[in-house]
Fold TetR/AcrR family transcriptional regulator.
Amino acid sequence: MPIPPPHRPGGRSARITRAVHAATVHALTEHGLDGLSIEAVAARAEVNKTTIYRRWGTREALVADALTANTGRQVTVPDTGSSREDLVVFARQVRDAILAPTSRALMSALSAGRHHRELAEIGRRYWADRLAAVRPLIERAVQRGELPADADPDVVVTRIVGPIWFAVSGPGLAVDDDFVAGCVDTVLAGTTSPAAGDQSR
Amino acid sequence: MPIPPPHRPGGRSARITRAVHAATVHALTEHGLDGLSIEAVAARAEVNKTTIYRRWGTREALVADALTANTGRQVTVPDTGSSREDLVVFARQVRDAILAPTSRALMSALSAGRHHRELAEIGRRYWADRLAAVRPLIERAVQRGELPADADPDVVVTRIVGPIWFAVSGPGLAVDDDFVAGCVDTVLAGTTSPAAGDQSR
């Protein structure tokens, strides 16, 4: 898949990128992945469709790039001095990102894309990047003794984020601040060395 | 939405139901929701399409019914005498159901259906039914003192199932038996009274 070349931020190129991302998110929100056409995105972003093909190559690459740009703006990795607080702030941001209509449309598109091999791969890479980004937060918790030394960071984050994701995309449970803090507290209290040691990957 | 009338199991009617369910699951697996046509399902199941319209009314009702029938066959609520064992057996069945290609296609269809109001509602009802079915298991754990009396059963199940669901549908982490048992043990060890008390719903 072609990788978009670097562009000067703030220039004409960055404006095009932003406009195309916004048009992509809009098209996904309105029509889902199967209704997303490069032509419609180009028309809405007021760029030539050859520009989109040249820069992103495929519809799948365009969606992946819009997804990453969209979430990158919404979720940061806090460093407040308290691991519990860091995890609560992070998990609330994830919750807000999951609840945002644009994210839900993008997640829906990714999930529906399990039929598309390339899109499924984009989804896995996207999540691998997100898990890698939050790893320092978990490593700080280990250094402070708030998680066992052999806790797998990806498993810890999965146990915190998974219930929020499932509550929203499955039964539609309320994911208020208490629910989210409870997810963090359960994992901090429940992750003990033998249980966390020999799991996964 | 029309509710399918009861039919004698084993009779011609039950055979039609099974054939239509199987054809629906096949169509979803192959083409996703947007590619699912009643005509194609009727052809594959070798029934008249008016039979499908008469019995299920809409494509959405058909998908919901196929989904429920499919998962009902795969996930039971065990009663082994040990709550931890019950939860591990249950969670492994959920894991197997999530990993099964037919379930993944159905889940994908439901998730993509967030654009469809009726399908989203079917999804919520489906999950509410699943959570209700497993509630006795959680209540037994409370009676045995393995979970606090004020633990919310739906939240407990969400915290166990959520990470499995997310690991599969997000980053694609391995969800082996140890991962699943770890999800149960973390929630059993980490669900303390204050944390579980004031959450959700």
